[in-house]
Amino acid sequence: MTADFRDDMTGAIHTISQQVNSRDLTGVARLIAGRTTSELVDVCERLTEKQRAVVFRLLAKQQALEVFEALAPALQSDLVSALRDSDVASLFASLDPDDRVWLLDELPAAVAPRLLRGLPDRERELTAVVLGYPKASIGRRMSPQYVTTHPDLSASQTLARVSAGLDHAETVYTIPVLDDGRRVAGVVSLRDLMAASGETVIAELMSQPHFSLATTDAEDAARACADLGLLALPIVDSESRLVGILTIDDAVRILEHEETEDSARQGGVEPLRRPYLSTPIRSLVRSRVLWLLVLAVGATLTVQVLEVFEETLNAVTVLALFVPLLIGTGGNTGNQAATTVTRALALGDVRSRDILRVLGREVRVGFSLGLLLGALGFAVATPFYSMPIGLTIGLTLVAVCTVAATIGGVMPLAAHAIRVDPAVFSNPFISTFVDTTGLIIYFVIAMAILQI
Predict the structure, then answer these.
(1) How open is the CA angle 422-423-427, to the nearest 5 degrees?
(2) R_g of the chain computed on alpha carbons
(3) How many CA atoms lie within 13 A of 318 on its CB side?
(4) Highest taxon of the source (predicted)?
(5) Do the Cβ atoms of 106 and 203 come closer than 8 Å?
(6) Given CA atoms 319, 324, 329, 334 in this order, what sign does their dihedral have?
(7) For position 436, what pLDDT does the model report?
(8) Which residues of 360-386 are buried (b: 16+ CB within 10 A; e: fewer)?
(9) Is 179 helix (H, G, I), strand (E, B) or coil?
(10) Cα–Cα–Cα angle for 9, 12, 18, nearest 5°?
(11) pLDDT score of 428
């Protein structure tokens, strides 16, 4: 996207906002006329909830459907609250079953049943299938609309099935092959079907299937789909019978959602689930205040440590000068380790059972970093203060970096082992914990060397 295009969109969005506020609906309609779906999505993401509803009502029906499908589920929920029941019913029915479930998860509990009752029987049944699985499972995100074939069918017969299912199937590029018990026996690609002669039986074309249980964590299944480079991943029940399919675009959507959550929690905030400019101020405050209160309580531990060692500080006041340096270095070292290991967990590079291997690696990494920083601290502090002070700073940096890297590396794995989001135990909590332990290490070393 060029800078000129961004400037044009920013100006247009500002003008649309002003015209909506002044009730110049003719001017708004003129400005949004001819805009692409992606441009209109960008406009809607930057308007307030009421402004968004006004703009949405001015769109042509087909374009309104396209824009609605492209919006984040949280913004769809806002529109559902703002539009008339007849408009909502039409929009809701136009969504695929898996997309409906994303929206239903955002809606108030009292609204969801009303929307489901308004669906045609067939669509309500498909949506109910997806809703029946736990929220964190891939069954909740799969599509129950697919085309299948049988090992004994021919390529031409399967292509006929594909043609008949084009209007409702989520994808036809990867086709599950089911045996007589509806168990997944293999998969066949549309490319191989079209390249084969019409008489070729599917048993000769199908390949070994990769599939996931419907109760598997959604992020794990999406990661498997992406890592294996699959266009679609069959989703099965405990008896390997097909119940749905996960397409690569839905897998990417799940991974982006999880990445957003992890990034937010590593920064000490709750995920917004909607674009920043369309998030109400109260929601921004609510996403941050709880974490700030928790971290503020945790920070009182640092105050308590300083109070315990108050006599040490009074005896050698120069020690106070290095407190920010030491706790800052420890916090940064712990955060680096936590971020690296959390990312490795997300990518599947490490598992909870690798905790001892990670522990050993981070002890060595932290010790190496501590030696480098400790030598630098000793070299800088000694000429300006004294040899004992320089030695205290140097040894403290070695110890703090070792402890911080170890804690930062192990804590995400421990969280994962007890089924807690590793991002929750990442940067904010690790910084608070390392600050406290770092100060204790600092004063213990100082008392031993300086004989206080």
Answers:
(1) 115
(2) 29
(3) 12
(4) Bacteria
(5) no
(6) positive
(7) 86
(8) ebbbebbbebbeebbeebbeebbeebe
(9) coil
(10) 145
(11) 67
pLDDT tens figures, 351-378: 888 889 999 999 999 999 999 999 999 9
User: For residues 68 and 94, is the Cβ–Cβ distance under 8 A?
Assistant: yes
* Mean predicted confidence (pLDDT) in 425-450: 82
What does the pLDDT look like over 192-236, one tens digit per residue?
Answer: 999 999 899 999 999 999 999 999 999 889 999 998 999 999 999
CB proximity list for 154: less than 8 A, separation 6 or greater: 198, 199, 200, 201, 202
Instruction: Say how many C-beta atoms besides its own lie within 10 A of residue 200's C-beta.
Output: 16
pLDDT at residue number 1: 46
Question: What is the per-residue DSSP string for 26-53?
Answer: HHHHHHHTT--HHHHHHHHHTS-HHHHH
The two structure tokens encoding residue 157: 């017969």
Question: Strand 174-178 to strand 184-189: parallel, antiparallel, or no bridges (unpaired)?
Answer: antiparallel
> What is the pLDDT at residue 268?
63
Please give the pLDDT value at position 101: 87
Token pair for 243: 């119940």
Q: For residue 73, which amino acid is it?
A: P
- Among residues 302, 261, 412, 428, the alpha carbon closest in space to that of 351 is found at 412
Supply the mean pLDDT for the chain. Answer: 85
**How many alpha carbons lie under 13 Å from residue 228 in its C-beta half-sphere?**
20
Read off the pTM: 0.70
Cα 442–Cα 443–Cα 446 angle in degrees, nearest 5: 90
pLDDT at position 173:
93
What's the CA gap between 324 and 93, in Å, rounded?
A: 58
Amino acid code (one letter) for 12: A
Joined tokens for residue 25: 């609906």
Token look-up 């995400």 returns: 412
- The domains of the chain, with CATH numbers, are 3-133 (1.25.60.10), 155-264 (3.10.580.10), 280-450 (1.10.357.20)
DSSP 244-282: EEEEHHHHHHHHHHHHHHHHHHHTTS---SS-GGGS-HH
Of the two residues 133 and 306, the one the predictor is more confident about is 133
What's the token pair of residue 11? 């100006």
DSSP code for 426: S
Predicted pLDDT at 358: 92
Given a contact cutoff of 8 angstroms between Cβ atoms, the answer to whether 185 and 179 are in contact is yes
List of residues 6+ apart from 108 with CB closer than 8 A? none
Determine the average pLDDT of the residues in 167-195: 93
Other residues' Cβ atoms within 10 Å of the Cβ of residue 210: 13
Partners of 177 in the β-ladder: 149, 186
In whole angstroms, give the CA distance from residue 72 to residue 205. Answer: 39
